[in-house]
Amino acid sequence: MSIENTEFRPKIVAFCCNWCSYAGADLAGSSRLVYPADVKIIRVPCSCRVNPMFILRAFEKGADGVIMCGCHPGDCHYSTGNYYARRRMTLLFSMLDFIGVENGRTRVEWVSAAEGVKFSQTMNEFAEKIHSLGKNVRLEDLRCRKN
Amino acid sequence: MQEELIKRAKELLADGTVARVLGWKAGDLPYNPEPSYFENEDQLKNFVYNGFCGANLSKYMIEASKLEGKTLVFLKPCDTYSFNQLIKEHRVDREKAFIIGVGCKGKLSIEKIREQGIKGIESITGAEMTDDAETLTIQTIYGEKTCTYASAMLGRCHVCKGKEHQVYDELIGESKDTKDADRFAEVEKIEAMSPEERFAFFQNELSKCIRCNACRNVCPACSCRKCVFDSTKFDSAQKANVDDFEEKMFHIIRAFHVAGRCTDCGECSRVCPQGIPLHLFNRKFIKDIDKFYGEYQAGEDTDSKAPLTNFTFDDVEPSIVGERG
Amino acid sequence: MQRIGVFVCHCGSNIAATVDVKKVVEMAKLEPGVVHAEDYQYMCSEAGQAKIDAAIKEKGLTGMVVCSCSPRMHETTFRKAAERAGLNPYMVEIANIREHCSWIHKDMEEATKKAVILMRAAVAKVNLNAPLQPGESRVTKRALVIGGGIAGIQTAIDIADAGYEVDIVEKEPSIGGRMSQIDKTFPTLDCSACILTPKMVEASAHEKITLYTYSEVEKVSGFVGDFTVDIRKKARSVDMDKCTGCGVCQEKCPSKKTPSEFNRGLSNRSAIYTPFAQAIPNVPVIDREHCIKFKTGKCGVCSKVCQAGAIDYDQKDEIITQKYGAIVVATGFDMIKLDKYDEYAYNQSPDVITSLELERIMNAAGPTKGHLERMSDHKAPKKMVFVQCVGSRCSDERGKSYCSKICCMYTAKHAMLIRDKYPDVDVTVFYIDVRTPGKNFDEFYRRAVEEYGVHYIKGQVGKVVPQENGQLLVQASDLLDNKQILMEADMVVLAAAIEPNPDVRKIATMLTASIDTNNFLTEAHAKLRPVESPTAGIFLSGVCQGPKDIPETVSQAGAAAVKAIGLLAKDKLMTNPCTAKPDELLCNGCSTCANVCPYGAISYIDKEVNDHGIREVRRIAQVNSALCQGCGACTVACPSGSMDLQGFSNRQILAEVDAICR
Question: Do strands C472-478 and C461-466 pair parallel, antiparallel, or not at all (unpaired)?
């Protein structure tokens, strides 16, 4: 493991709901739909389980982008979870934008269990976006930086 | 008005309607009265009510609700929103409160007076709320100075929510709607900046934060028995600030936790010893909530669904943040 | 501190080919709490599970991480293995290094790095896991079958025979499905209706089966054992109790210009209709879109002629709400639309037809009363060309990538039947491959070629051009003789690909059942759990899961029934213990959590607490763990962090975040 890594490899955290998006990611996997290894998935039961604290913490610890995926509105396994998640994330993202954090670093995408292609496309797009934004210097905890 | 309040308080104590009075007592300086309990006539000698009584007493009712007997509490129009919100969240007991809605014509900020170059203050007249005085007369070690009442008002009073009390048992004194500015003008000004400017603005403001928790302690919506920043639940227990993200995280989460519950009482900014305009966070959320989900004023009632515990099938998507440009 | 074991699976070469599993093991040993790490070819195998068993016992593990396939695949397997070895099953976490890593990353170094991080996140989480005990939930002893074709009918009969109530929901006015449209079945050539209609009657007469025809599933809520389903019974405009099925209304109906869906548009039907004579129930429906009474308000002939007084123009859609323990999806298939295949002139010439249309033409009850004739001039054809794989095994976006499986056999059947009944008709079949795996299938195909003289040519038809003389000019290539063929034909029959019923996407969404990119429902395991959806309590029957012929459909229908019966036979199910739990000392009693709970699982009590010496009565949230489904909405709504989700706690998720970002 001796990568001379001068190239920017973003850290991307993806919160995926167990019922739709995590299954969508599984489908992307079983369909061998490639997306960058920079994306690491955390399984949560529902998008409404994603606490803004988790997202801020990810940034604090050096994440360059955080994406949350859930069932399409109307399709939540728990009926209403993603509707609450939608409001929470809308307000949180707006606030992050307000304090000057590039809004491209946060994203919500609704991905069903059947949308392996969409999952892979979304992750490719998001990774590309984060790549273009570069290292997240505005939010990270400076203590965690290793240079 | 102060004498009227004292008189009524004495009566209510005397006839046993209330067991104690929650009001303001004179501080060591002419402009820093502080919240206080009064349990008898004698203690009421120290009771004051003037332009500097900005403190919102509704949060004290959480503890007062646990006490034996009723508590007489004086609430200004804007304070009553907070009280309503606390009723809604089962944090105060309406039955334990005897609310006198007190008149308010805007509350004063000593900082605003100092900003006008008035220093060495010894005493201030015109803040007693007894007349329609439009002018403050300030005795300083450098002689007598004056300024208009309006120029010395707290920022929040310029965007006054109105002179009506939302909840009360009795009303004493006249109130005045002191609104003379747009509530969201400050937020819009920041929104109009570039992301870099916004980042620099908040970096500058928040770097002053000393995590004294005054904002949290005074906030009527921050009424948790134990704040998440003090508990082990999120591994977020408070510690010394060592990086510039922690205070951002603290203030964002604090604002998020009160989003849809914050009545915009402005106490956070009033008490911040570092003068950070903390109300901007809350007001940004209020502005977004109004725009995305329809106008909502927390504390206007005690039974409506709060924006974050509510939804519609066709709510805006989070991507609107980017699309707005 | 936990004593954690890490087990890294090779999954044969599925993981090991792109992830350096030894490296993952080596790195795992450095993680806090890890006291054991090993890799093995197949962790899910008996030998693999034995290794887990041994490690738990010998090393006294208090938690374990399996780096393997998706937890949706084998989490249960490993939890059970842990339980057998005496470890609480909820002390097991899965690092998904197959679907989320080895299968999507090509570079070994990169994939290994990611696998290590995923392992670390799982270890960090398991460090904070706590043993959990499942609760119990009841099972409603009633099954719902969505779709009333042969698959749905068979499943329903099998479940009902086991003694459970079954409801069939069919969106058409009659049950029967595609099989009712088919004339004869391969390889026995027995009449489809003759074997299907008795089944239809059996289903309809069964005391345990309720039919909801002309009905659709509107809403599904709940979970395995306890689903609540709203069924929309569309207004038939005919009173089912009064109608005698005499058919006079259909005869007298003046609106007779509507293409018959049942006859694939080859004939017309009246506005009040039953799809076919043997329809069950034998009660017509009024197609309100084409009914003159509904369009103009004038007419009402059917009402006048109905002796039974069964016509009810004011009938409204009815919503029936019913509880079910199990749901079987049997939504079947349709032929793909051929709009994009202009080269076959399907839309230009009525003599270019699909195989299913040919079934209707060959059928004695069909538009031509069973006479083989051209739809353009009703002349008997002398030369017929069959084109295989129209839209199947297709590499472009017009068709489907998969093999539709049934076309080779039904085309052999068609060719054979035509040659048998009309020996003077010349039949040519163009094929890519002839696929005949199945009992007596190849023999059947060889009979078509050897006994019935059907010409099979390996090659694809490039173009079908309608000629002025009414003939069709077929351009094709013969790949074996390596030559171009130009031939005239009277009729061309296209073996169009089959696709899942377009409604299945909507239904899958309601059921939160996964479907693949071709809209086929996904199995819980392609080999081992082929009739179950990954969503518990949802079973798959028939072509909704993948192309199959009738015998396969019937077998799968039976298998789905057995799985459903296995569920219904249980009185109680163990419930997921990953439910919300408030911390009494932190609870504000503010009701915010209850406001977002979709299950009404949160209530409040006044309770005396001892908060570090302060004794007082407080209003405190309580979670009913039988009702809580563990979504976590309350945990985020709670400002104080009192409400937490067991198995997905704040600290666990934050530990994962930290591990990924470090």
Answer: antiparallel
